[in-house]
């Protein structure tokens, strides 16, 4: 593929493969699936998403406005809404989910005639292997714990929302759903909808989609008054549907071979350092698994801007392309222009094989974020 680097590439064929799996869940389980924009917000692909999904879920006003680019359902949750933004959020949202009774009591009268009101509750089931991504960790600020739940304040509340998963399979949802019902099941008879949150790796190999469908159907049978069941995965939409292409700028030796790329873990794939994790590189192996081992480093001045150690069948050369897999999610939405390095282009590979450059970034984009 002859493209300028660095560049994120999303393949429509792979994206649609994920969307078809999600649509199957919608149809067979009578559920609605929303794309969580916090994980995948490439709006140049919204036309394709709109064909399969029921809407989008936002984490605040700007994401809600982005979701509102399409005539689908827009759902908005924020740990705390601003007074200056709540009216606009309500105007464009199908549901507005509050994180506390303080926020509910402050804003419910400004929302109730425009949107359905929900509360995020904390099911108290920790299953994420990384504390940074565990909404049910001790002292969490996300979701109302049962000890603080006020049943007498539910007059304008039509739905409950929980979110406790991160990149997890169906068995984690089963445990979380059990905990949610144990704590809050008594209130569900008065609700119109429930949102199971995100973190469902539905399109990942090994995920038992049949089990998910049966769990949702069983839940609906237990609460026949519930009109809508929502799931809001972000990663499952773009999982393995895109990659980041970089170029080798230099190769140095400081006790081992180090390839410096025109990309950055810190700026362009921040979860590599934050989670942390080691992304898959196309055609590469573990250190010393293949004949030639290199440390792949970013182009910023951050000493720790290292992506990882990889081995290759043949020596890397200056000018070679290196492809990092699964880079359509939590990359574009979290990247930065740290050190003033160029943000990657956003490329869409159409189903017919043609290449569409959705966005190219320039110096002015960097300058205009500053003052």
Automatic annotation (TrEMBL):
GO biological process: lysine biosynthetic process via diaminopimelate; nor-spermidine biosynthetic process; spermidine biosynthetic process
UniProt keyword list: Decarboxylase, Lyase, Pyridoxal phosphate, Spermidine biosynthesis
Catalyses which reaction(s): carboxyspermidine + H(+) = spermidine + CO2; carboxynorspermidine + H(+) = norspermidine + CO2
Orn/DAP/Arg decarboxylase 2 C-terminal domain sequence ranges: 126-327
Manganese keyword on record: no
EC main group: lyase
Protein name: Carboxynorspermidine/carboxyspermidine decarboxylase
Organism: Nautilia profundicola (strain ATCC BAA-1463 / DSM 18972 / AmH)
């Amino acid at each position: 593929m002859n493209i300028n680097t660095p560049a994120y590439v999303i393949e429509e064929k792979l994206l649609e493969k994920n969307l078809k799996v999600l649509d199957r869940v919608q149809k067979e389980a009578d559920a609605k699936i929303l794309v969580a924009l916090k994980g995948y917000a490439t709006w140049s692909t919204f036309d394709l998403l709109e064909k399969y999904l029921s809407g989008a879920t936002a984490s605040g006003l700007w994401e809600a406005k982005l979701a509102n680019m399409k005539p689908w359902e827009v759902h908005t949750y924020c740990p705390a809404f601003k007074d200056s933004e709540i009216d606009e959020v309500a105007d464009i949202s199908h549901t507005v989910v509050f994180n506390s009774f303080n926020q509910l009591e402050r804003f419910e009268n400004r929302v109730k005639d425009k949107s359905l009101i929900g509360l995020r509750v904390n099911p108290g089931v920790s299953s994420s292997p990384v504390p940074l991504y565990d909404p049910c960790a001790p002292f969490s600020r996300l979701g109302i714990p049962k000890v603080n739940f006020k049943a007498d304040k539910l007059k304008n509340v039509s739905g409950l929302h929980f979110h406790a998963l991160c990149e997890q399979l169906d068995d984690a949802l089963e445990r979380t759903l059990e905990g949610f019902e144990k704590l809050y099941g008594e209130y569900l008879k008065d609700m119109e909808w429930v949102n199971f949150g995100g973190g469902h790796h539905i399109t990942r190999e090994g995920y038992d989609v049949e089990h998910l469908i049966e769990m949702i159907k069983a839940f609906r049978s237990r609460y026949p008054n519930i009109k809508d069941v929502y799931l809001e995965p972000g990663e499952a939409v773009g999982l393995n549907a895109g990659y980041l292409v970089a170029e080798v700028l230099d190769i140095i030796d400081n006790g081992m071979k180090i390839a410096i790329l025109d990309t950055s873990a810190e700026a362009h794939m921040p979860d590599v350092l934050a989670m942390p994790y080691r992304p898959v590189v196309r055609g590469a192996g573990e250190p010393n698994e293949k004949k030639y081992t290199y440390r792949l480093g970013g182009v910023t001045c951050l000493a720790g801007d290292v992506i990882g150690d990889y081995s290759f069948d043949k020596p890397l050369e200056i000018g070679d392309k290196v492809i990092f897999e699964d880079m359509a999610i939590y990359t574009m939405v979290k990247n930065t222009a740290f050190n003033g390095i160029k943000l990657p282009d956003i490329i869409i590979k159409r189903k017919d094989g043609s290449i569409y450059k959705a966005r190219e970034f320039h110096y002015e984009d960097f300058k205009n974020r500053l003052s």
